[in-house]
Each structure stands twice: as structure tokens, then as C-alpha cells.
TrEMBL record:
The keyword Flavoprotein applies. This is LLM class F420-dependent oxidoreductase. It comes from Kribbella soli. One of its GO terms (biological process) is alkanesulfonate catabolic process. GO terms for molecular function: alkanesulfonate monooxygenase activity. Residues 17-223 form the Luciferase-like domain. Keywords: Flavoprotein, FMN, Monooxygenase, Oxidoreductase. InterPro entries: F420_MSMEG2906, Luciferase-like_dom, Luciferase-like_sf, SsuD_RutA_monooxygenase. It holds the Pfam family Bac_luciferase.
Length: 271
């Protein structure tokens, strides 16, 4: 990182980290558990699942497991990695209950939970489980109302969380979502090429300045799809991305690409 990078993108001071999203679809739980253990052994920094009730690809009625009960199991089954949902759907649980669930998982893991949250989007989940789908704007408004409740509940719980639980917000909406990131999040997660992410970072930086927050406090995260670090690593790094997340789906969780990213991370952080 150059002096200019530090000035223009203070979030570039974070070290490079690698995440793995273990998509909990089309696999038995034993396969998911083995994959998480293998990822921790490889040296990944963060392991994510997702918060859906049905597969997002492949057979629509295929094998699938629930998010937060799984996270509680991961809290016991892992020792070093941080972990969380990429991301929890705000619509599916009362915010105060969700805060309590997160606090409990935080304690089970001795303080390794990342609290990922978003407004929700997968209509089949809503229809099948009886939640009102509403509009994208309405779901974002609900997220904006939920975040202060979650923060307030963490302060009221006995015992309190083991640490200030890092909040990750996913989504790229510039008028509402990134405002919520500026106000509430420690990590922002988005998708896109370097040019797209650089633009989102700039918008987020402006929202931070509007409320008087240092944009360097917010780690920038992105999904890398099926791209290798040789393809996109430097370009994403140059625009300030520091948490790079690989995704893998069942039934056969291939971690070859993850190994490439972990090796690249070690090279980057050694410079």
C-alpha cells in the first residue's frame, strides 16, 4: 500500500483476509462440517454460510439447512476462524431475539462471531415460510429500524457479548444500504469488478463524512466468484478491498480455489 492509498483509502490499512462461504445446499451436514474443518486447517480467516431456507441454485427442493442453528454448531466445532452468515435476512427473526441469538453464539465461540445482516431478497423463502415479502424499499426500511434495536439489546443482555460484535452489512444500494453501513457496520460486503467497487467505496466514504465517521473504520469485503487471485486480486486490492470471499456449494465442496486465495493473501501481507 502506498502513501497515497493510505490517504485516499484509509480502509486499505486492514490486512488482506480470505473468507469462504460454505453454501449449505445439496449436501449432508457431515459434509458441511468436514468442509468447515478443512477450511480452518487451510488457514482461512472467516467461514460464512447464508440465511436461506431453500437452495439458490440447482434443484430448488434440494438438501438444505438452517443458518443460525448451524452457526451455533460451528462455534463449537471450530477453534480459530471467525464465522457468520453472509448474510442474515432481517425479515426472518424478531430483532431483539436475533440479537440474543447472536450474543449466545458469540459466547459459545469465545468471541469469533461476525454478525452479517441484510434486508432480504429471496421471495421463495418468504412465500414458503409465511413472511410478508413487501417491497425492496420496505425491507430496507425494516433493516434500518432493526439495527438500533439489535445494538440496544446487546447492551441490555446479561451477560453482554464478549466483544463489540463486528457488524457486516451486505448490499450495494447507494441511497439506503450504504447509509446504514456508514452508521452501523464494521464491514461492508459487495459484489462487482474493481471499478464498480471503487465507486461504491467512494459513495460509502461520502456517507461516512456526512455523519462524521472515519471511513477507515469500515473494512471492505467482496465476493470473488470463480475468479483466481491472478485474475482479480490486485485490482480489488488496489481499490481497497481487504476481505475476499470464495463460495463453494455442495455436494462436493471444492476448496482448490480457496487454497490459491489463502496463498495469495500470505504473499500480500508479507510485503
Amino acid at each position: 500500500m502506498t502513501a497515497s492509498d493510505s490517504t485516499d483509502r484509509p480502509y486499505g490499512a486492514f490486512p488482506a483476509r480470505i473468507g469462504l462461504q460454505v453454501q449449505p445446499q445439496h449436501a449432508q451436514y457431515a459434509d458441511i462440517r468436514r468442509t468447515v474443518a478443512a477450511a480452518e486447517e487451510i488457514g482461512v480467516d472467516v467461514v460464512f454460510n447464508w440465511d436461506h431456507f431453500y437452495p439458490l441454485s440447482g434443484e430448488p427442493e434440494g438438501l438444505h439447512f438452517e443458518c443460525w442453528t448451524m452457526l451455533a454448531a460451528w462455534a463449537e466445532a471450530t477453534e480459530r476462524v471467525e464465522f457468520g452468515a453472509l448474510v442474515t435476512c432481517n425479515s426472518y427473526r424478531n430483532p431483539d431475539l436475533l440479537a440474543d441469538m447472536a450474543r449466545t453464539v458469540d459466547h459459545i465461540s469465545d468471541g469469533r462471531l461476525i454478525f452479517g445482516i441484510g434486508s432480504g431478497w429471496f421471495e421463495k423463502d418468504y412465500d414458503e415460510y409465511g413472511y410478508e415479502f413487501g417491497t425492496a424499499g420496505g425491507r430496507l426500511d425494516a433493516l434500518g429500524e432493526a439495527l438500533p434495536r439489535i445494538e440496544q439489546r446487546w447492551e441490555k443482555l446479561n451477560p453482554k457479548p464478549t466483544r463489540d460484535i463486528p457488524v457486516l452489512i451486505g448490499g450495494g444500494g447507494e441511497k439506503k444500504t450504504l447509509k446504514l453501513v456508514a452508521k452501523h457496520a464494521n464491514i461492508w460486503h459487495g459484489f462487482g469488478d474493481a471499478e464498480t467497487l471503487a465507486h461504491k467505496h467512494a459513495v460509502l466514504d461520502e456517507h461516512c463524512k456526512t455523519i462524521g465517521r472515519d471511513p477507515g473504520e469500515i473494512e471492505r469485503s467482496a465476493g470473488v466468484g470463480d475468479k483466481s487471485p491472478e485474475d482479480i486480486g490486485k485490482s480489488l486490492l488496489d481499490v481497497g478491498t481487504r476481505l475476499f470471499t470464495v463460495s463453494s456449494s455442495g455436494p462436493d465442496y471444492d476448496l482448490g480455489l480457496l487454497r490459491e486465495w489463502v496463498s495469495w493473501r500470505d504473499e500480500v501481507n508479507a510485503k
